């Protein structure tokens, strides 16, 4: 079955349950733990020196031992350094001219250490040049360095390298290019940056499966490997893959799509089978040029700009400002005890009755609300087709003022409601208590309630506490110190006290009747 599928050049079955028992082998061996432990103090001392002296340093890492031969051959490093620890440091591109001075000072710091260390001092451009020159093994070694310090480049590159390895191990023959882009190559990466990667899939060799089906099946698996790569890398960077079919990509290049041109210009391949770099070279030479048809297509997009902008402005008023103005007004009417009115018909009428006629709000806010409703009606009846930017700016400014005033109105409504609630609670409780103790003062009633009922266990201490809390909440509210939470808590507790007093009085009446 497998043989037949390969003959048909179809995609192999994807065993998603196989989580790569050998996935650790995808990464170069990092520095052995015993060596790290032994030299930890020295490494910390070196790192602290570098960061104190050169705070702009972006990366300090220890290259994997297995990769040292590659760097010795590439950079003509002395053969005897094969047993050294190779320290890889990245500094910003604008510090390029200072490299000799920086390197000299760090080398002096390294002298006399028990552990022999070789220094590689680079800029991000040097790192990307390795990839552009198809020296992917060197770039991978840097990505898998043991991190002593990282502002974001190393972690982002590591998670991309691991994800690439997972993808290639599963279906390498379909991947023609794996390219990184975004903040990582712009030099703006931080430890939490998204890592933009682009995977170009070869769909020219698939005969038994529709191209779009191939893309979706591979896309699904590529996305599933994102979480696995992040877990292995141990970083916070979120990988954001974008998948392209090779034929679609060529079509976009032919049509001079700006997004694709930007991608080719700025992208850095960390895997390429001779596809991406030729595009990049052609673009640099100015030989990737748009066709006349592409120019016509992009020019025609500008013809509709004004119409789209005017439509968008009107849409802002109709679908944003209208609902942003009317919905809070409906909410305040409900808070004030009214049923929610229809925003287009009864809203201004009810708003006027409840707030303007009662002198709770000024006329200009009622007029503004009516004006917004009038614009909506005119739009519904197709009486207006566009609105000026100046008008929208004024509406936005007036909306800010209106909403600020409505927040103040809400506080006033809530304060009135709270005042009404606390007064009703207080009245209900003391009407019952005066029925028990006569028309006495507040303090006298509380004292008698405590002496005659609480201390004699006819009521619980909880009842006395609730009674005092109600009195306190009322006093604090009058002084402006209370809040809605305290008032609501007093209301809930008052219902307990009122119900227990009523029940007590009923029991007393029942006992009195039995005695008769």
How does this structure look, described?
By secondary structure, this protein is of the alpha/beta class. It is 62% helix and 9% strand. It has 20 helices and 8 strands. The chain has helices at 2-7, 33-53, 68-75, 99-110, 124-132, 136-143, 153-171, 183-186, 211-233, 246-254, 258-266, 276-284, 292-303, 305-335, 347-356, 363-380, 389-437, 442-454, 461-478, 484-515; strands at residues 59-62, 85-90, 117-122, 146-150, 175-181, 195-201, 239-245, 268-272. The strands form 2 sheets. A 4-stranded mixed beta sheet has the order 3-2-1-4, sandwiched between helices. Strands 7-6-5-8 form a 4-stranded mixed beta sheet, with helices on both faces. The longest helix is centred in the last third of the chain and has 49 residues, at 389-437. The chain starts with a helix and ends with a helix. The model is unreliable at 1-31 (pLDDT under 50).
Number of helices, where a helix is a run of at least 4 consecutive DSSP H or I residues: 20
Low-confidence stretches: 1-31
Tally of extended strands? 8
Fraction of residues in H or I helices: 55-70%
Query: Mean of the pLDDT scores?
Result: 83
Which strands sit side by side, in order, in the main sheet?
3-2-1-4
Cα distance, first to last residue? 101 Å
- Using only C-alpha atoms, the radius of gyration works out to 38 Å
Structural class: alpha/beta
- Strand residue content: 5-15%
- Give the overall shape: elongated
């Amino acid at each position: 079955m497998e043989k037949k599928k390969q003959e048909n050049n179809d995609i192999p079955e994807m065993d998603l349950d196989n989580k790569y028992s050998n996935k650790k082998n995808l990464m170069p061996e990092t520095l052995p733990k015993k060596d790290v432990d032994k030299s930890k103090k020295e490494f910390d001392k070196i790192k602290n020196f570098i960061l104190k002296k050169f705070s702009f340093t972006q990366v300090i890492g220890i290259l994997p031992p297995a990769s040292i031969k590659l760097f010795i051959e590439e950079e003509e490093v002395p053969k005897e350094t094969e047993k050294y620890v190779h320290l890889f440091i990245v500094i910003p591109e604008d510090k390029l001219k200072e490299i000799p001075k920086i390197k000299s000072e760090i080398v002096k710091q390294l002298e006399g250490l028990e552990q022999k260390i070789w220094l590689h001092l680079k800029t991000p451009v040097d790192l990307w040049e390795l990839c552009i020159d198809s020296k992917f093994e060197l770039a991978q070694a840097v990505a898998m360095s043991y991190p002593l310090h990282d502002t974001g480049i190393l972690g982002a590159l590591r998670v991309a390298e691991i994800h690439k390895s997972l993808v290639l191990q599963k279906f390498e023959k379909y991947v023609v290019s794996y390219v990184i882009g975004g903040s990582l190559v712009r030099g703006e990466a931080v430890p939490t940056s998204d890592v933009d990667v682009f995977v170009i899939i070869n769909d020219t060799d698939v005969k038994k499966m529709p191209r779009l089906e191939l893309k979706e099946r591979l896309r699904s698996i590529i996305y599933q490997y994102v979480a696995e790569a992040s877990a292995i890398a141990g970083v916070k960077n979120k990988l954001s893959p974008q998948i392209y079919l090779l034929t679609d990509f060529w079509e976009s290049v032919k049509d001079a799509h700006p997004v694709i041109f930007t991608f080719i210009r700025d992208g850095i391949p960390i895997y390429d089978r001779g596809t991406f770099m030729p595009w990049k070279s052609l673009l640099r030479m100015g030989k990737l040029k748009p066709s006349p048809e592409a120019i016509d297509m992009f020019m025609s997009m500008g013809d509709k700009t004004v119409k789209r902008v005017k439509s968008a402005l009107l849409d802002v008023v109709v679908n944003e400002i209208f609902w942003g103005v009317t919905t809070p007004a409906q909410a305040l009417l409900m808070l004030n005890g009214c049923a929610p009115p229809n925003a287009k018909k009864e809203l201004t009428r009810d708003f006027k009755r409840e707030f303007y006629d009662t002198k709770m709000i000024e006329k200009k806010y009622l007029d503004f609300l009516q004006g917004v409703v009038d614009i909506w009606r005119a739009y519904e009846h197709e009486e207006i087709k566009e609105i000026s930017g100046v008008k929208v700016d004024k509406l936005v400014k007036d909306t800010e003022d209106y909403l600020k005033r409505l927040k103040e109105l809400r506080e006033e409504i809530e304060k009135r409601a709270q005042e009404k609630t606390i007064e009703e609670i207080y009245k209900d409780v003391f009407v019952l208590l005066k029925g028990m103790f006569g028309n006495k003062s507040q303090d006298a009633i509380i004292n008698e309630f405590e002496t005659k009922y609480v201390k004699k266990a006819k009521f619980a201490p909880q009842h006395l506490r609730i009674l005092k809390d109600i009195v306190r909440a009322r006093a604090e509210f009058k002084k402006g110190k209370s809040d809605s939470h305290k008032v609501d808590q007093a209301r809930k507790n008052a219902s307990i006290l009122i119900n227990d007093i009523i029940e007590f009085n009923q029991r007393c009446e029942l006992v009195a009747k039995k005695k008769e």
